[in-house]
């Protein structure tokens, strides 16, 4: 991947440095060693891109390699983003200064301020934000809900991406403790337990076994759980990996719903909990069979677990009577400022509750991360969903 981005990254890195060097550095100092020192970060980052892109282990899905790329990317943006912002702000000020005689200072100060803010966001999101678990209280109201389920509490987790937590067992233990403190009636997990391989669960499986709810823990598969982004030796190895994941979830006490359903009972009332395998928009995998999963639940209040929120408009709304769908997948692109996220350009429904009349979709922002070890605004989410009549 870095090979394909190599030229773009070099442009992103070098052009702002060249501009700022001639715009500021040569005017601020005549000392040769300071001018040379200015280029050190650029030289080191260029060497890093070259090494990772062309000489490092060329297996994109290897856990350690992915972690190295992730942290290198953080430091890359930490040094380049502020310079790019400052360069753009000063360039914007050029025509105003030339033709309107506006002073350059406001544009420079704006660039410096925004650059400093970008540094703070990157540092906070990388070292604090990715473990800043956010317990969100959400209510879904429906007149179709059986009386006995009024006040029923569901904790939703999604997108743990356990391979990204390598070396940080305490964070996952904190997650489990926070979930259990909510005293849920039910825990559901809406896919992407691993990044690539089931062995990522080593060291975490026993901790995740500690998740407890009165009616148990249910899960579905996400696109990453099938291992499509790993360079498998053959199809048999890929199938064995998925089989191992299913066995481990069973050993953890999680009930995996693969295009099937279960009936939850409260007193004399019952609701249907339906789960489909990943049903994503291309190029994401499509293994779901909603018709099969729903068979036998006609007339019941239905909750659907489906990893990808695009499934809601593609099939769930037009072809079913599902009352509430729970999804994940988007991560909010791991970046959210107020109500804005780059995820909104890709997913019509990317965070929180969406309603079509009385039918709802809730999109959980997920727990883990893919690529960059970073979250800002789109904090790792524990959803506590209360059902009401």
Automatic annotation (TrEMBL):
UniProt superkingdom: Bacteria
CDD domains given in the database record: MPP_YkuE_C
Residues covered by the Calcineurin-like phosphoesterase domain: 153-332
Sorted UniProt keywords: Hydrolase, Membrane, Metal-binding, Transmembrane, Transmembrane helix
A GO biological-process term: lipid A biosynthetic process
Pfam families: Metallophos (PF00149)
GO molecular function: metal ion binding; UDP-2,3-diacylglucosamine hydrolase activity
Keyword field contains Protein transport: no
Keyword Transmembrane set for record: yes
GO cellular component: membrane
Membrane spanning residue stretches: 6-24, 36-56, 68-94, 106-127
Name this polypeptide is given: Calcineurin-like phosphoesterase domain-containing protein
Source lineage: Bacteria, Pseudomonadati, Bacteroidota, Bacteroidia, Bacteroidales
